[in-house]
Amino acid sequence: MTDWTRPLADRLRPRSLSEFAGQRHLLAPGRPLREGLEAGRAHSMVLWGPPGTGKTTLARLAAAAVDADILTLSAVMAGVKDIREAAARGSANREAGRQTLLFVDEVHRFNKAQQDAFLPYIEDGTLLFIGATTENPSFELNNALLSRVRVHVLRPLERDELGELVDRAMADDQRGLGDRQLGLHPDARSLLLEVADGDARIALGLLEVAADLTEAGAVIGPDLIREAAAGGRARFDKGGDAFYDQISALHKSVRGSSPDGALYWLARMLEGGCDPLYIARRVVRMASEDIGNADPRGLQLAVAAWEAQERLGSPEGELAIAQAVAYLAAVPKSNAVYKAFNAAMADARENGSLEVPVHLRNAPTRLMKELGYGHAYRYAHDEPEGYAAGETYLPEALAHRHYYQPLDRGLEQRIAERLRRLAALDRQARER
């Protein structure tokens, strides 16, 4: 008998692979994972994907497929003691001839010692291990654990997959909303699929809220979906992969001279709740790293946008950030300063405390002057063209290093011409 107090998303949780929505790349007929489960075989695995993609459901289906005793732990609450208790139950089950599947939600929250505690039980078959995570396992899980499991990537549901799920919920009178004889306006359905953003749990949750606000036999309209969805929409994890993927997409769109792409990813991050000041700081970085001296105005505009956000807040400050992003994406690019700075930093780290050449040292006291500090220093302003041709400004061990190589783009083209002229003067001076 259906427990109608359970949320719609839980009531409609798939009871078989045929009911599972999405993840065709893993569960379509003929795929190895599906064939294994249908044959009653399962392996230890980590399910990596955003919320609402079926990680918990897939773990339950795997347990049912192999007729395993399923234990569930949440890494937020559990510790090594709970792992040992699960292993003890697994040992007892194995003696009785039954498998034990341990499902660990948010497994990335376990520390190294806790993750290591799983290893012997996975290796000797005491536990069939399935971990679920929204974070990149490469960064969050130990290599020792990863080497003992397979990682399966779960994707956000496609629009048609979500649509099938919503239609099933509306029609099912045993576990869904079919007994209420409700209608769903096409515009409301379209809006629901848009707002859910690939998350089945959100889609069903919003549908249930809208249904609760609708009289039996009536039609759910778009206004009710908007009311149910008031608050948040786009998937954006402020500390997870989505965060870093989207800021990476913004940065690479600027670097790739795509104002449209840059503005889209900026909008996505802002819509998802990212702190505009964080974006403003990153935009300043982009101005130096990817535009540099090809157009120094880019850095000025980026700093001005940051200041505008600090002074005015949203939405005025966000428009200033958008202006800076669009400008940086459109102007000539140069990473010459970025590369030069990295090379100089590498030399500074690798060559230790090389002495400052004597002629460049400060000589504020009589003793320092007697020691030769500042001797033979040439004051550039007193030299022809304001340049001391042939002079050196690096430690002797690095005298021939050239870090800054301007590109022939934007303003940096003129800088390159000037530096080539000065290099020619240096050669002439040394030949004399």
Structure, described:
- This protein has helices at 8-11, 24-27, 32-38, 55-65, 80-95, 112-123, 137-140, 143-146, 159-171, 186-196, 200-212, 222-229, 241-255, 259-271, 276-291, 297-312, 316-330, 336-350, 366-370, 410-431, and strands at 45-48, 69-74, 100-105, 128-133, 150-153, 183-184, 219-220.
- With 432 residues, the protein is an alpha/beta fold.
- It folds into four domains: 23-153, Rossmann fold; 159-229, Helicase, Ruva Protein, domain 3 (Orthogonal Bundle), CATH 1.10.8; 241-330, Zinc Finger, Delta Prime, domain 3; 354-431, Orthogonal Bundle (post-AAA+ oligomerization domain-like), CATH 1.10.3710.
- Helix 6 links the parallel strand 3 and strand 4.
- The longest helix has 22 residues, at 410-431.
- It is elongated.
- The relative contact order is 0.07.
Q: List SSEs in N-to-C order.
A: HHHEHEHEHEHHEHEHHEHHHHHHHHH
Arrangement of strands in the largest sheet: 2-3-4-1-5
Second CATH tier, the architecture of the largest domain = 3-Layer(aba) Sandwich
Low-confidence stretches: none
What's the quaternary structure here? Answer: single chain
CATH class of the largest domain: Alpha Beta
CATH H level, superfamily name of the largest domain = P-loop containing nucleotide triphosphate hydrolases
Tell me the Rg in angstroms.
31 Å
Instruction: Characterize the overall form.
Output: elongated
| Distance linking N and C termini | 100 Å
CATH topology of the largest domain: Rossmann fold
SS strand fraction: 5-15%
Mean pLDDT: 87
Total DSSP E strands: 7
Q: Kindly name the structural category.
A: alpha/beta
Biggest sheet details: 5 strands, parallel
Helix content: 40-55%
Q: Provide the number of structural domains.
A: 4
